Structures
1.
Amino acid sequence: MIDELVQYLGNWRNRETVLELLAVHIRLALLPLLFGLLAALPLGWMAHRYRPARGVVLGAVNVLYTVPSLALFVILPGILGTRILDEINVVVALALYTTALLTRPVMDALDALPGHVLAAAVAMGYRPARRFFTVELPLAVPVLAAGVRVASVSNISLVSVGALIGVGGLGQLFTQGFQESYTAPIIVGIVLTLALALVFDVLLVLANRLLTPWQSRRPERARRGRAERRAGSRPAAAAPAGSQA
């Protein structure tokens, strides 16, 4: 096994192919994540703001997510007028899945916002659009970030399915390995896919911390408060002998 990997990666053409497929995989996973997030924000806001629309929006995205990915890859060229090997088919399909995954987290994040904070924003004269982008959306980032992390891992895995129609980034290493009964490209594809998912997840965690600096200060304030309460609850030291009352 090790010898096969060394031999496979020892060929500069194989290394060049792997790097090209890795770049394609990153592009096909990142673009749908961005487009899906942009589409999920207004849908989640609509489901949060208008209660009658909630059932329709959530029902539609739930049905959308049940459509098999391979079937969607095959159907989209006929709808979009593209060729079956165009990357746009995978991007659109995964953007739809990302939208379906993130719409509910957006709604849940907005539903969980403190009412007194929103009331204070209204009292200060914030209009709905300004209140959403400057108050509601920043406060919703922690909950939304968890959904984005799930969507990123889902995208990275689903991109590989596109290899069955000839566009799949690292997934093409899987098809190559199965067709040639050669395990080296399969192992390389699996390891790089897992590593890519881990890198995406770490970057999203860091982005969440940068966008919500108040979250990182809460544990420190809590520890400081507990320390102060413990110090205040200690019994006063006994007065030295001979001291006056």
2.
Amino acid sequence: MILIALADDHKLFAKGIEGLIEEHPGFEVVGVFPNGKELLEYLTDHRVDIVLTDLNMPIVDGFGVLRHCRKHHPASKVIVLSMYDDEKIFKEAMELGADAFILKDADPDELIFTITEVFEGRYVKNFERVIQQANQGPFFDAFREKYRLSKRETQILKMIAEGHINRDIANVLSLSVQTVETHRKNINQKLQVNSLMDLVNKVNEMNL
């Protein structure tokens, strides 16, 4: 079980994140806090695997959370949640010891995969990945809705159809190869295909 604590002063957003995370087996949200101070007080007496923290919070902000966790709770991985796809902010968070950086308006599956990657130590720290979260490009909504694909899955699907192998896809999207492989399994299941040829034919039928 991956134990997760969340600090964010926007109650509706925090509640939505909590619900999203707890839909997934193996994840448990052990605490939701309105500021970094209350989060850090909780960490004093409780084990947490993953800390999700907003940067802009009262009393103790996300940068304060990063500094404190790196010094006093090095076993806890910290994922920064931000509204801003700003490279300066990204670099500052990385320098303070952030394990990952994700935009608040990223696709929900991006957060779930990021938590898994960070917990397993295979998250790729790259600002290009943040930019891709902000600008996923054009997608065919009818195709996505029909097969219930996420933006990331549609992006990977297009690259597969174009002939890219897993390692190439991972490099372009700043993902680990294992994450790409997991996405491919999910895509095959959603599209109900068993081979690369079937998958490509399905894409061609929909003119993706």
3.
Amino acid sequence: MCCSTMKTLSSSLMAVGLSVLFLSCGQKKEANQTAETVVTADTTITLPAPYATKSAVHFSNVIGWPDGQTPKAPAGFTVTEFARDLVSPRWIYVAPNGDIFVVESNTERKGVKQAVVNVVKGQDKSERTGTSANRITLLRDTNNDGKPDLREPFLTGLNQPFGMLVLGNHFYAANTDGLMRYDYKSGQTKITAPGKKILNLPAGGYNNHWTRNLLASPDGKKIYISVGSGSNVGEHGPENEIRRANILEINPDGSGERIYASGLRNPVGMAWQPLTKTLYTAVNERDELGDDLVPDYMTSVKEGAFYGWPYSYYGQNEDPRRKGERPDLVQKAVVPDVPLGAHTASLGLAFYDRAAGLRSAFPEKYRNGAFIGQHGSWNRSQLSGYKVVFVPFQESKPGKPEDFLTGFVTNNNKDVHGRPVGVTVLPDGSLLVADDASGRIWRVAANK
């Protein structure tokens, strides 16, 4: 291809990228002039009117961590590097025997057109968008010194994996397009035998909604699968959202699928509250309504409940883009429990269920509370999220979130060292945090 043709192609692609970037900015918005007060389980919040502020495009610039520098935890805790040089470590799962499994996978934005759009928007500096590693890595700390001394590729050749689960003699891996089940023996360091796809899942999705998380019921008789929406607010039509924005329930063999809860735009983290055995999820809410709409949230999940997406948010607050379409569903929408801030990309969720007396056990105030990994988003004029927050529980009721692991944002809110996602608690009482953008896993332990 000649140079002039290449220049023409480049110019055309740049124009396409710019048009995509500024399309929403040029659209006229019908503003709702009133703010709304909503009572949640932990607080009363005032939600601004839609379009009270412009919809921003603000991707972070990941610069990595200087050697010797770590995120910051409260006084009384020590943060150390548990593992590094991983390729987008996004999710962590601890098997019943204590083995630690780490998913290495990322969003794949394919095609020349998409590559140009990524550059124009600055998205290429915010996250890894190349070919996904598509593997699960095993980490094992055999001498209990807080550092893994075994690191092995456990399972490869996957398709954007995310959720993991050991149940009986099986290892489950949730690809973006289906649930895989493999024969497994406790302690094995590699799976090479082919698995079986026991359930097809709708693939792809808006932004990072390709993730499919897994959680077993406390008695091991059911598996729950979180599936995010395929769009921001249903703009592609309901036919493209079948089995999406839901938590699905199946039997361990893949049969018996049903929708356990719906209207959850992007439910990612799932966990059982230790005292009540109530299912909770962390939900990444919708974009393009302004800086402070709509807050992400953590909520208990009621069987058969509808949580609003895409027609409303925080109960009966109707989304102006879906106004009047489904008043029946708006009327039944459940108010979520704990607001976590707008555009924080609250994804990770783990309850602190370890007893006192362990080597790295956290103080009593953390018992039965929830840690939430906030990956940080792009749709706010000032960066928000990019930290781990803690939600205390008193008498099985959630309180207000408080910062726990910070220091990811730097240079006057312009750059970030990394982006926390998955969180999990180790058998010794310490906390692991997956930092996918920097390729590291951090360990937080209480000082003795």
4.
Amino acid sequence: METLLASQNLPLIGGGLIVVMLLIWWLYRRTRDGSRLKRILGEISHDRIDGLVIPNGDDGEIQIDHLLLTSQGLLIVDIKDAAGTVFGSDKMKEWTVISEDRRYTFSNPQEALYDRIAAVGHIVRQVPVAGRILFLDGAEFTKGVPSLVTNLDELLAEFGEPDKAAAKFKIEAFKPHWDLVRKAALGTQVDQMFSSDQRSGPRSPS
């Protein structure tokens, strides 16, 4: 009788183990992605403002999740955590993510990013302003990568500055314009900014 009950419970036990293993893998991936994100953003930025709200140049306001001061100018980063195959293009109004267990769509993020670039550019007219839609590890574009889309490795390769002396010289030239963004900020979110000049050791995002 005990043997029969044990055999009947095997599928339940196996199903529970699968759920636990999937949960462990999900937590591992989230932790790994979060650590890499902090490290790479810290390597390419010399200052950062999170949750920035500025005028949009049209009697309104616009929110920017992450604005970075890099050696190439100001960089807006919109982060997407989409695990699976992503289908999207410059002309598609909606992009689709297909994974093993789900399928969902979201609005093409390029238009909103262009608006953010324009809003920052309206404040700092003499400084390059770039924007990237950052897909974390786990997203795969099999039908081509749309404009402004990047991953962590590509972001580091594009905006990293191995020559620290040259980077410092460029940053000093950009800082007066960076201060213009702070002054234009609405609310108190500028208090979230931290400066590499005020901290010792490598910096990591909050």
